[in-house]
Each structure stands twice: as C-alpha cells, then as structure tokens.
Sequence to fold (67 residues):
Amino acid sequence: MAEVICLCNEVLDEDLRLYLDAHPIGSIEDLREQASICNKCMQCQELVEGEIYLARMRRQIAAGHPS
Fold:
C-alpha cells in the first residue's frame, strides 16, 4: 500500500519512486527544479533524499556499475 511521503504536496512514495526511476535526479535540489512534486517545506527532506539515493543505486545496478 502506498504511503504519503510529502504531506504538503500529497506525494505518494510509489509515485516518487516511479518518477525517480524515470528521471536521472541526483539531489533534492534537482527534484525541486525539474518537478513540481517538491517544494522547500523541508518536512520530508530526509525521506525524499533517501528515495533519491535508492533510485541512484538502482540505476547504477541496472547499468552494471554497483558502487
């Protein structure tokens, strides 16, 4: 079941993961610039940064370059 990861924008964790898997976002700043799914409320920064990190790891593994 999906959980809300950002309360102020009502972003679901599954939606964020799908977006991050489809777009090469490297930081929360990149996410703010490229998508309207994150503003600067900072309430969910740790969760979002964790999802960005996990997406980056998934991309590296898919490319055959585990860190």
Summary: Helices lie at 13-22, 28-34, 45-62. The two ends are 30 Å apart (CA to CA). The chain has a mean pLDDT of 84. The first helix runs from residue 13 to 22.
